[in-house]
Amino acid sequence: MSNTLIIYSTTDGHTKTICKRITKFLIDGRAAKMISLNEVSNSDLNEFNKIIIGASIRYGRHSKNLYEFIKFNKNILDQKQSIFFSVNVVARKPEKNSPETNPYIQKFLKISKWRPKKIGVFAGRVDYPNYNFFDKYIIKFIMFLTNGPTDTSQSYEFTDWAKVDNFAKEICSI
Questions:
Q1: Longest dimension (CA), the chain
Q2: How far apart are the C-alpha atoms of 100 and 98, rounded to whole Å?
Q3: pLDDT in tens, 63-115
Q4: Domains in the chain, start-ordered, CATH in brackets?
Q5: DSSP H helical ranges for 24-150
Q6: What is the CA radius of gyration of the chain?
Q7: Residues near 126 by Cβ (< 8 Å), separated by ≥ 6?
C-alpha cells in the first residue's frame, strides 16, 4: 500500500513543483504517489493513509474540479490524514500568508466544508513571459491594483521555499 497520495491542481505548473519539493521530505519517497487532480479519478483513495492536496488560484478561484473532487470524496478525506495547501500570489503579503489570514483559504474552507488535518498557504509565481496575451494583461492589471510587479518581461517567484520545507517536515509527522 502506498502511504501517501499527493494530488495537485495547477494552472502553470508551480503547484506541481511545490508538490515535488514536499515529496522529497517524505520518509520513503517510494511510498508516495503524485498525480494531477485531472487524473485522480483512476486512483482508489482508500489505498492511501495520507492524502495531500495542493491547489493553485487563478483569477481569485480554486478550480471547479477541486470543489467537485472534495464534495465527492469528503467522507474518505475525513477518515484519512488529509492535508491541504493553496498556492496564490496574494500570500506574498505578510498579512495574508497564513491559513488564518489568507482570503482564498478562508473561502475554500467555507465553500468546501472540508476540514483537513493540516492547512498551508504558499505564495506563488507570476510568470509573465509564459502567459498568453489575455492572461498577461489581466494579471498585470491585478498586480497593478495590488501593488505587485507589472513588468511583463520578467517572472517573479514569491515562494518562500523554507516555509514549504517546514510544512513538508511537519506533515511527515502527521
A1: 48
A2: 5
A3: 999 999 999 999 999 999 999 999 999 999 999 999 999 999 999 999 999 99
A4: 4-124+160-172 (3.40.50.360), 128-158 (no CATH)
A5: 64-79, 103-112, 133-145
A6: 16
A7: 89, 139, 143, 148, 149, 155, 156, 158
